[in-house]
């Protein structure tokens, strides 16, 4: 499959297990060329009544039969798995990431489906004796509205779809208008195995997302995106007391202690920062390096940055693709220029690449400090600012001095010392000697402070798609 094949395909929205007909379509750009890749259905807010009605109608049947849900989810995993190669070309063409990374994202989406299909949701019996029976049960909420960003489109959609469906909800998913195609294609494929109305996928520019949030039918909004939009979602959902999970921005610090073997940690640190071209909420975005190893570390990561192959994700050997879209590309350019005006030096990169598409050279900045935009704000691009520190207490304070609190990492040869620092960081996850080590289906992922509300993944993530119910009464007759 090639980008031409992607362009030739008609991507459709799914509602009630059928095509949702739209009168218009919008362009999706291939970030590796800056050209139109394909078009996507432009679903209008007024069409959501029909979509949510389909999701609501499917709810009772889907919620009733747990075994059937688990079987259908395993079948869904198999259907996606069988099409990973084809879907990966779509994902790379719309998102920019290298083909292997796209396959990895799809593979993880499959594993999330399987993890939740297998997860037990026990009924918790609090009391069962000759006086009383009391149990706590998790009930599905009903219809879920899910809204996703452009950086990890299908991976993050599956963080919502898998637990929501496992818990017995039905769902309407709205991917980012920058990257709707893979999610639309998966929605279409899963018609084969999921009952009509269980999984619905719509696409369109704003105000479609806002219309999902304010629609009266969904009882829960699961949102991944920026903190600014997260605040809007939170306000709109409050109107009729919808439940929310918000996975928002991050400005994640990595703290490198002076005892590390610089050459050994450099590759892992580099990829902790440049994964998905830095367009990951949890990428290491502020590197606090102890002054003793500061220069050596900057040299080591700069050496990697200049040797990494940047290009079209479909080309063999590409390790880093383009930035996904023009506004984000311009933002990264602005942040790097601002840093340079404020005394930063680019040890590698520092500029856009002179070619079509949204390519920016992997950039290592030294001579930066807290208070400069590229350090204080979420940059979300291929830029690693390295900041020197002298004292442990000071670096902990600086790492925590952010409105965000998504993840952090601590790097040291002294593992116990690293764990003690981890305990002092105000973030949803802290990894030792790796960045983002806790992103697994089994572990809760969520942000402190302005990085989010609630968590995804593991049983904790599933709990976010349920309401607790207590059932109590006289002793239950025994068989
Ligand atoms: P964004 O907030 O601009 O958009 C996210 C989604 O919200 C898109 O689907 C968009 O169409 C939709 N949207 C826009 N306005 C809306 C509104 N008023 N109401 C409802 N929906 C609306 O974010 P983005 O630029 O697509 O993604 C990048 C951001 O996502 C970064 O800040 C990144 O940190 C964050 N992110 C967070 C996580 C996490 O798990 N914490 C993961 C990935 C990305």
Automatic annotation (TrEMBL):
The active site is at residue 247. GO terms for molecular function: oxidoreductase activity, acting on the aldehyde or oxo group of donors, NAD or NADP as acceptor. SUPFAM superfamilies: ALDH-like (SSF53720). The keyword Oxidoreductase applies. CDD domains: ALDH_AldA-AAD23400 (cd07106). Pfam families: Aldedh (PF00171). Residues 23-470 form the Aldehyde dehydrogenase domain. Keywords: Oxidoreductase. InterPro entries: Ald_DH/histidinol_DH, Ald_DH_C, Ald_DH_CS_CYS, Ald_DH_CS_GLU, Ald_DH_N, Aldehyde_DH_dom, LUC3-like. The keyword Oxidoreductase applies. Belongs to the aldehyde dehydrogenase family. This is Aldehyde dehydrogenase. It comes from Acrocarpospora macrocephala.
């Amino acid at each position: 499959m090639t980008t031409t094949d992607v362009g030739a395909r008609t991507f459709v929205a799914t509602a009630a297990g059928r095509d949702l007909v739209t009168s218009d379509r919008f362009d999706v750009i291939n970030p590796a060329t800056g050209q139109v890749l394909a078009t996507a259905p432009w679903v209008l807010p007024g069409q959501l009544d029909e979509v949510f009605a389909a999701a609501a109608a499917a709810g009772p049947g889907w919620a009733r039969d747990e075994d059937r849900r688990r079987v259908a989810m395993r079948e869904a995993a198999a259907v996606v798995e069988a099409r990973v190669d084809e879907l990966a070309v779509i994902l790379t063409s719309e998102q920019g990431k290298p083909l292997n990374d796209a396959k990895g994202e799809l593979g993880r989406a499959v594993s999330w489906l399987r993890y939740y299909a297998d997860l037990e949701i026990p009924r918790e019996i609090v009391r069962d004796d000759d006086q009383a029976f009391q149990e706590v049960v998790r009930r599905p909420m009903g219809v879920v509205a899910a809204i996703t960003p452009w950086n990890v489109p299908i991976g993050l959609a599956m963080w919502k779809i898998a637990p929501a469906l496992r818990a017995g909800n039905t769902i309407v998913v709205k991917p980012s208008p920058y990257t709707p195609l893979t999610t639309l294609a998966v929605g279409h494929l899963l018609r084969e195995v999921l009952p009509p109305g269980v999984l619905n996928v719509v696409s369109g520019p704003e105000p479609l997302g806002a219309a999902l949030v304010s629609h009266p039918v969904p009882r829960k909004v699961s949102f991944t995106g920026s903190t600014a939009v997260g605040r809007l979602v939170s306000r709109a959902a409050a109107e009729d007391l919808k439940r929310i999970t918000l996975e928002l921005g991050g400005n994640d610090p990595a703290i490198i202690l002076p005892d590390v073997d610089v050459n050994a940690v450099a590759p892992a640190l580099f990829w902790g920062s440049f994964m998905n071209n830095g367009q990951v909420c949890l990428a290491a975005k502020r590197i606090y390096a102890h002054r003793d190893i500061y220069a050596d570390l900057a040299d080591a990561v700069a050496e990697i940055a200049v040797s990494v192959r940047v290009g079209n994700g479909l080309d063999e050997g590409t390790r880093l693709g383009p930035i996904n879209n023009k506004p984000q590309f311009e933002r990264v350019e602005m942040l790097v220029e601002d840093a340079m005006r404020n005394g930063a030096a680019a040890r590698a990169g520092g500029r856009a690449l002179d070619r079509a598409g949204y390519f920016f050279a992997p950039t290592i900045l030294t001579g930066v400090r807290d208070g400069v935009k590229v350090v204080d704000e979420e940059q979300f691009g291929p830029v690693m600012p390295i900041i020197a520190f002298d004292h442990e207490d000071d670096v902990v304070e600086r790492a925590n001095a952010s409105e965000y609190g998504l993840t952090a990492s601590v790097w040291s040869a002294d593992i116990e010392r690293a764990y003690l620092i981890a305990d002092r960081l105000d973030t949803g996850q802290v990894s030792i000697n790796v960045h983002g080590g806790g992103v697994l289906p089994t572990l809760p992922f969520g942000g402190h402070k302005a990085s989010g509300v609630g968590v995804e993944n593991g049983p904790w993530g599933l709990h976010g798609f349920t309401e607790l119910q207590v059932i109590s009464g006289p002793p239950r007759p025994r068989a």
